[in-house]
Sequence to fold (536 residues):
Amino acid sequence: MLQLKKLTKTYKTGDQALKAVDLEIPAGQVLALIGPSGAGKSTLIRCINRLVEPTSGSVLLKGENITKLGSKGLRRARRTMGMIFQEYALVERLTVMENVLSGRLGYVGFWRSFLRKYPQSDIDEAFRLLDRVGLLEMADKRADELSGGQRQRVGIARALIQNPALLLVDEPTASLDPKTSRQIMRLICELCEERRLAAVINIHDVALAQMFVQRIIGLKLGELQFDGTPQDLTEDVLTRIYGEEDWLATIKKVEDDEAEELDS
Amino acid sequence: MSAALQIDQRLGKGWSKPHFIKNPIIRWGFLLAIIVYLYLAVNSIEVNWARISEGLSRGWEFIKAFSNPDFTSRGGDIWDGMVESIVITITSTVVGIMISIPIGLGAARNIAPLPVYLICRGIVSLSRALNEIIVAILMVAIFGFGPLAGFITLSFATIGFLSKLLAENIEDMDKVQAEAIKATGSSWLQWINYGVQPQVMPRLIGLSIYRLDINFRESAVLGLVGAGGIGATLNTAFDRYEFDTAAAILLIIIVIVMALEYLSGIIRARVQ
Fold:
């Protein structure tokens, strides 16, 4: 469903963030993108919806070449790609409901959005999603009154109300505690399954990635280093992606964690 | 090994902040130059003591006038001047804000394309380069004496002030919040309305009220060059040596400015 062909990004400073990345993601697949800081993970997902303009190469979503689209076409394409951010990226001075409804901006006209007069179907869907993520009673709170985990749930609702085919998720758990991190990852993966969504999840917590996704991609200095299942992610592979370190603890922790999860 | 040696040399020794100018000769020389300059500068001031004593007595009379300000004998003039000043203040602030918002958006480098940015920054610089008094003199020359000149002057000055600070606030905003709105497929206007406006609104309201405050004070000054308002009344009072009326006008101005200050404090605290 999503195809990246020789996707390259060179920043003005001369840094090559992505070096001809080829990747294909079938519909409904949840994929984790791991790699050290500066490997180009954020750049990769931002090139998909062109928050960052790729230098060359192409992004095909359902056969449509996104890199060739004009501003109107790009807006339409962005509607089908929900994005979830590190640090939540909610508009802090707007209410929770406004934040969720902002996911419909690509579908409604300016005056409707300016006057906050959204179609009834959008409002219903917003309430349904808030209920699904367990924040129904928070609808009229201002976004900056929520805790980190709650904010990220609103971020998820905002992405889903776009009715996307693909989720782009940038470090969803980076500023959350371990327990909340897992809850958020579980929620994202459950929702992807419910709605048959494909997702690209940037994550630097390797153990968390192994726990929740079917496929892991390793990125290092803008190049693909690994593409496989969580089981294939061995000590050697981690050394190849991140460099020399004792990886046994990282991998072993996953098994422990899973046992723990089963116990509870 | 060498690291251990270094730490041994450091231990037991005092520490002081490195000097801003490292070379001691330049450092002390610089200080000496400042002292010599100050000495020469103070000595070069010519003071006409006779003139000062004459002025002092007049000043004293003016200060005495504050003990019995005369609000009534020119009450009608004061009232008219005050109404005119308030009208100038409110209209120029409202018009100034309305023009400042689009220019402020255009003058923010992170949301405006380069040509728009340069034009808007040009307007801002022009407005800021010209002092209110100078603009007022120009406007009086163009539109004649009266409040219209004051209104145009203050509108123009408001644009320079508000656009610049609004643009700087937009440039400092949290990029990610705006990015998240863009990622939903919003149009440019929706992006401004949802991603940018909520972030800068409290500052915009605070600055607008502050500008209202400034415009009122300026409107009192502009009367001196013939641009209408309470300043004209004040000027007339001085010309006629009616210090008690002048004192009354000044007291009213002070009270209104303080009231505005208090009001803006309350509003700014509430919009955070």
